[in-house]
Amino acid sequence: MSIVYGPLKPADAARCAELEAQLFPGDDPWPERAFLAELSAKHIRYVAARDGDKLVGYAGIARLGRKKPYEYEIHTIGVDPAYQGRGIGKRMLTDLLEPVGDGAVFLEVRTDNVPAIKLYESFGFVNVGLRRRYYRVSGADAYTMRREAPSPARQ
């Protein structure tokens, strides 16, 4: 397996929507137009993982606020089920967090998505709250997780 990482492109939106339908079937998966809107937004950045010409993963983060220190919110991370467990999500999360600098990062994750929770915890995210029925279609709950900005001594 030779996975190549780089920016997600508008031409990838249909494949992202296809993966969303596989990964989040009961939780209102994002359609192609949602990915196109995300990719055209000024302060949102997406990364992609590709196996040859095949998109096998995507991840996005948004910068919030107008003044430093900014906060960030991870919007989504998805990996093709056939490629899960190979470190692709970890690498994409690393790429998303690298330019964040001194900003805190937030995300929501289903309370029953243990692999994702463990991944986020390995990056220093902690559970800071519960959002009941966050996923409207399924009614599933989500944890809100936060990663504090690294202290100057840790950078």
TrEMBL record:
It comes from Mycolicibacterium flavescens (Mycobacterium flavescens). InterPro entries: AcTrfase_RimI/Ard1, Acyl_CoA_acyltransferase, GNAT_dom, MshD_Acetyltransferase. Residues 3-150 form the N-acetyltransferase domain. It holds the Pfam family Acetyltransf_1. It comes from the Bacteria. Belongs to the acetyltransferase family. RimI subfamily. Keywords: Cytoplasm, Transferase. One of its GO terms (cellular component) is cytoplasm. It catalyses: N-terminal L-alanyl-[ribosomal protein bS18] + acetyl-CoA = N-terminal N(alpha)-acetyl-L-alanyl-[ribosomal protein bS18] + CoA + H(+). One of its GO terms (molecular function) is protein-N-terminal-alanine acetyltransferase activity. Acetylates the N-terminal alanine of ribosomal protein bS18. The keyword Transferase applies. This is [Ribosomal protein bS18]-alanine N-acetyltransferase. Its main location: cytoplasm. Its EC number is 2.3.1.266. NCBIfam families: rimI. It is found in: Cytoplasm.
